Amino acid sequence: MPVQMKVPSFPFVAPVLRPVPAGAVAEARDGDLTSAGSWDALWDGRGSGRLSRSLRERLGWSRQIDDTLARLVALAAMGRPRIDILELGCAPGTVIERLHRLGPRHRYAGIDLAPEGLEQARRRLAGLGIDADLHLGDLRDIEQPGADLVISYGLIEHFDDPAEILGHHRRLARPGGRVAVTVPNYANPMVAALLARYSPDTLATHNLAIMNEGAIADAMTRAGLVDVSVGSAVGPLLPSSRVRPGFGGATYRLAARAWNLGAGVLPQRLLWSGLVWGFGRAP
């Protein structure tokens, strides 16, 4: 049973998250595979997904993701009852929602560069009564570190150099704080072939080279993190967003979603793992 430790008061949110005007983050920078505009177009066209979320819960693979997140938070907390958690790329709020359900006593904050996605996150979390401090901006423009855990869920694969982005994760963690990242796994040859045919935008906006345990471990080490550990979770999933317009893309989306409802509960590595994670400590 973990030893309970008293957590000192820590002025986390106010000095760390400084809003950046929308115009300052609207354009993609060199090495970015997405932009604020591309994310807003995605969030604007995405419904609530309540039915699919309910099915995922019933079939069990959402629980596998929750278990993975819970382990990462527990490693960062080290027995402390309350820590500061900062999510980078927090739109549309689903990860903070999950994290809060798993650890409601922790303090949550988030930053995202997409105005529509951030607004969706604000509405979602406010509707659930979750107190999280959310700000519009680019993670590379935040100046002060301080979080006990800096986490991102499906973020670093949207850059040519994930190690650079992981360096900003490390910079935003307090000394001795933890960094946790997850990425989807689309690097399986069959998945890549399907994406090339039905969702070329997914290939264009994702760095498949980071989607394995060895690559994440190497990138985290190059970013200056220590005590790095990596792993995988969930059965073989298929991406279903950013599909090609038309009948073929729509058919693929439906087929991918149907596949995911069942395949997510298959044993990991049977075909490929749907999610890869990494965890490290800021020195």
Task: Provide the β-strand percentage band.
Answer: 15-25%
- Number of extended strands: 7
Strand order of the largest sheet: 3-2-1-4-5-7-6
CATH architecture: 3-Layer(aba) Sandwich
In words, what does this structure look like?
Helix content is 41%, strand content 18%. With 283 residues, it is α/β, with parallel strands linked by helices. The chain has a single domain (47-281), classed as 3-Layer(aba) Sandwich (Rossmann fold), CATH 3.40.50.150. Strands 3-2-1-4-5-7-6 form a 7-stranded mixed beta sheet, sandwiched between helices. The longest helix is centred in the N-terminal third of the chain and has 17 residues, at 61-77. The chain is globular, with a radius of gyration of 18 Å. The chain starts with 12 loop residues before the first helix and ends with a strand.
